[in-house]
Amino acid sequence: MAASNSTNTTQEGSAAVLLASCVEIALCLLGTLGNSLTILVVFKKKSLQVVSNFLLASLAFADLLVSAILVPMRASQHMALYNGGTSIPKAAVEVAGFVGRVNIIASISSLAAMSIDRYVALSHPMFYLSSVKFAKGKVSIAIALIWAVSIFVTCVPKFPGVSDVAFLAFFVAFVLLVTSVIAVAYYRIFKIVRKSILKQRSSGRMANNVVRLSRCSTLDSRRRPYVDERQDKQASETYVQKREHKAANTIAIVIGAFILLVYPRIILILYHFAAPETAVSQHARFWIRILLYSNSVVNPVLYAWRHNEFKREFKKILRKCWRFCLCHKWVYLKRYSFNKTFSTTTLGSQNMDGDSQQKSSPRKENCL
Question: Can you tell me the distance from the alpha carbon of 134 to that of 4, in angstroms, rounded to the nearest whole number?
């Protein structure tokens, strides 16, 4: 959560501090790259500009803040501690801690909004397709509200009369409340998916029976176009349902990763409400924070793994960046070789002119 000094839990020059700083540098680079690509792909590709992907971009922006602000600060703090130098300014620590708390609240709120979005998409598909899926204005208001609430909740300790203990209790209660909303939404999604699977099995059996009858020529030829149209409609509905189910499964995996990587910190806060801090709990907090930061790196990998269009766009952007770098390198080498050749040619011509002048001067003397 807050980025406080680690002098109580680690020693200067210890291998743990050096390892933590190296891991945090790697998380900073990977998280900044992955989340920047996610945001760029969503706003660049028109086919990806739907409500669920805009919420993914909001989640990626929260992770980008952590990767670009909080994690580098922690890495520099650990490197200073390892080298035995002075710690970084207190203002930087407070800003990084503020970003960390905003990230947790904005991330879990975005996940809750994504869960509700999936529930509406599966429970009311026609309404979702016509009124929600492409509603950029509505999702922009929802994202702005998420971030406003996240900043407001994080600013609660600055209010007069609010202690750190009271804020932590409120913070944990808020996170647990939003988690319960996610759990209820996915319980209903599970029921909808189970019901649709049973319906598909029964309709599949019926379609197979109809196909057998048509192949045996026992079905009237006037009824065959109707049967073909019904089969095409069922196939298209099945394809749409499969896409929605896959999107729901992807978000469920993202939520599971969030719980596995972030909730150890929440559990440790709850533990410290009941028991005082010890050397063991402080050491555990040292590594649990790194586990929390790694959540900002995991999500883009999950998008690329589960979503083929994200994967294709990631590859396109990375290829363009690679070609751009190679092109600039080739231009630099070409200019360097041209300048070198030009300077060599110039020097050679100057030497030749000097030699010719030296050779022609005696002739002039002889002529005179």
Answer: 43
